[in-house]
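Design a sequence for this backbone.
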């Protein structure tokens, strides 16, 4: 047949109606699979784009909710534990919730669950305050004072006992095997000479490792001084220092171990239990037109 068409072309004669219809049928049959490929490619591209948008929305909403304080959850969920976000939401509503508006064609369901098993998470074990032989209380810069307490006798001293204009100080801890005592001295300068000594404070060394608890202030009053703790000991026991402090404390202290066995524990919390709360947060994104769920995104929020 192809040879017949070729001969007709050379002879400048036209196609018959039957030949034209056959040609159209052949070309049409060849175009069907090609058009199906194009249609499928376009459909896949649209679905991929929807999925990418859904993934972005899900992660963004998840992080936005997780970043909120527990007290702010009411601004998102009201009295419920879930809420649906759709086209009825106004910009003011999104602003109140602290969320980015959904694009047209998408719907989201946000929810949280308070029944998550907290034991499934590897949370830190609280550190209770150990019994201390000496308490060094460095309050919030008030009059640049340091309060020392002998817990066995209840004796307490406040350093410095005389006013000072110094902006730094050294608290020297000495463990003496010969006298079986631990002595604390207060110096009003960090320089090599140490400045003037204000007074002495000493206790008898216990049979166990002596424990010194340091309570760091929050620095809300006055100007905190630069504080250094020097430790020098020849005791057979280990002197244990426990610093109870927060990142927000402006009252800081450095340590300088000159000699002896010393252990230091820092960044401890003064409470012996944690008020733990945990939420399971879930975000679901849907295609409004088809009703298809495009993705489910989950995370947990832990507060201590």
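Sequence:
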């Amino acid at each position: 047949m192809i040879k017949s068409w070729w001969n007709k072309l050379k002879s400048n004669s036209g196609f018959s109606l039957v030949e034209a219809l056959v040609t159209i049928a052949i070309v049409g049959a060849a175009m069907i699979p090609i058009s199906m490929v194009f249609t499928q490619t376009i459909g896949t591209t649209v679905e991929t784009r929807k999925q990418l948008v859904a993934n972005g929305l899900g992660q963004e909403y998840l992080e936005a909710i997780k970043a909120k304080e527990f007290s702010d959850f009411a601004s998102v969920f009201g009295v419920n534990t879930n809420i649906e976000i759709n086209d009825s939401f106004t910009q003011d509503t999104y602003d109140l919730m602290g969320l980015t508006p959904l694009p047209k064609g998408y719907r989201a369901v946000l929810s949280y669950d308070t029944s998550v098993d907290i034991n499934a998470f590897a949370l830190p074990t609280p550190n209770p305050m150990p019994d201390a032989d000496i308490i060094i209380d460095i309050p919030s810069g008030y009059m640049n004072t340091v309060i020392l307490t002998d817990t066995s006798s209840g004796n307490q001293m406040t350093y410095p006992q005389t006013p000072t204009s110094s902006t730094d100080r050294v608290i020297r801890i000495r463990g003496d095997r010969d006298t079986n005592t631990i002595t604390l001295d207060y110096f009003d300068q960090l320089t090599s000479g140490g400045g003037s000594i204000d007074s002495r404070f000493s206790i008898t060394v216990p049979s166990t490792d002596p424990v010194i608890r340091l309570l760091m202030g929050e620095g809300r009053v006055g100007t905190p001084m630069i504080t250094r703790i020097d430790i020098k000991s020849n005791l057979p026991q280990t002197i244990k220092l426990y610093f109870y402090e927060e990142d927000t404390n402006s009252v800081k202290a450095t340590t300088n171990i000159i000699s002896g066995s010393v252990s230091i524990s820092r960044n401890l919390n003064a409470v012996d239990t944690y008020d733990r709360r945990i939420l399971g947060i879930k975000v679901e994104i849907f295609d409004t037109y088809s009703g298809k769920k495009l993705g489910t995104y989950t995370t947990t929020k832990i507060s201590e």
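Residues 1-115+277-304 form one domain.
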